[in-house]
Amino acid sequence: MSPAATTPDIDRTAPTPKQIVEALDQFIVGQGKAKRAVAIALRNRFRRSRVREDLRDEITPKNILMIGPTGVGKTEIARRLAAIVGAPFVKVEATKYTEVGYVGRDVESMVRDLVENAIRTVGDERRAEVQDLAERHAVERIIDVLQPQTRAPSAPGQGNPFGQALGSIFGNNFQMQQPQPYVPPQPPNPELAALREQTRAEIERGFYDVRLIEIEVEENATVPMGMMGMDQGGMQGADLGEMLGGILPKRKSKKRVTVDDARRIFAQEEASKLIDMDAVKREALRRAGEDGIIFIDEIDKVAGREGGRGGPDVSREGVQRDILPIVEGSTVNTKHGTIKTDHILFIAAGAFHMSKPSDLIPELQGRFPIRVELDSLTAQDFKTILTQPKNALIEQYKAMLATENVTLDFRDDAVEQLATFAMQVNEQSENIGARRLHTVLERLLEDVSFDAPESVGTVVIDAEYVRARLQDVVENADLSGYIL
After folding, report:
1. C-alpha separations of 293 from 2, 341, 435 in Å
2. pLDDT in tens, 468-481
3. Fold of 17-117+284-373
4. How many CA atoms does the CB half-sphere of 313 hold within 13 Å?
């Protein structure tokens, strides 16, 4: 596939398995079995959405267990899969969780992290929808600062009685009005309207961009009583101000900023006022529960080993038993509401060098019915990774050094020699897969990167150049293991 290939034009809500694999091919080399498995799992979600309603809840995702050494693309496949359809995604390490009673994170936090990710995604989408209107409101607010005489007097609104009561306790810095989107004023006469229109045009063409103005910036209201810590039920460190919502409005502070910065600040404030956060949270919870993907890495590290049952193995099995109800389907409380995990797609991965998938507890094994083994990368795979994906490493280095007016001219024999050296180092030391290419390239281009600001022009990278800088290190097993 050519590096210049573009992402296939697919329906993000219902991509076919072939389209999913084609999209993954642009970023991940090989691993066809794993790509087919995740493509089918993703398509099955669309199929489930079209079956009759009484059967829909009975159809659960077929979770996937990826088995393969590090650096072969396990995490990248899951991450790119979520990006193809815009699904909420979170990657967690199984080793950071501990059995209940030990010090460490509880397994339900992975679901809460997924919800937070979904809220950010949906919130960004809603802000993008209202961005144009928010920017127009921001311009009007700047006009009010630059030409205050053009603003019509506004009738005082009815104050929030709870806000007034709290304001009398905590100080008058609290605004007594609920945050509302800005309403552009109607100037009282044609001359002021014309002045306002002229100022608007000057702001939009950047005439005032560097001018300093004083604006009021909204800040989250703080409560002297501090935090209400409720670790159970997902209310971890819930801020009392957030819980009170509109009862405790935001306060404002004055800042001197440029008009350009003021436009950005006001646009963010107006966008936040224009979106319904309750609706955002409801949609985020729905997406996380229906479309979410949780990638559990290093699952082999919590697999029990045959033999002794003492020591850390007890905790390892405990972590598996804690993960089990989440994967089976349970209800998790978060500070944004409850979420069912029945239809979240779980993808677990591990190298399984020191253990086997059968070392996992039987109940957990049964919840990952699809198992795919990823292949170790060959020298030909390394060559492809260096040149063909859209984010090919050589293209990245070319682009970075081009900013210093240095042109890298990689010859074909140089790419082949690099791939051979990377494969050789992986064989004689720890096999870290494609990550070895990063270390080899950094070593190869160390002098060029150091001299780049002063030495401009074209640098030809051929096989001889590669051997001159890497052969001694690669052939010395101790040195290559230490440096590369």
Report:
1. 29, 10, 24
2. 888 877 777 666 66
3. Rossmann fold (3.40.50)
4. 11
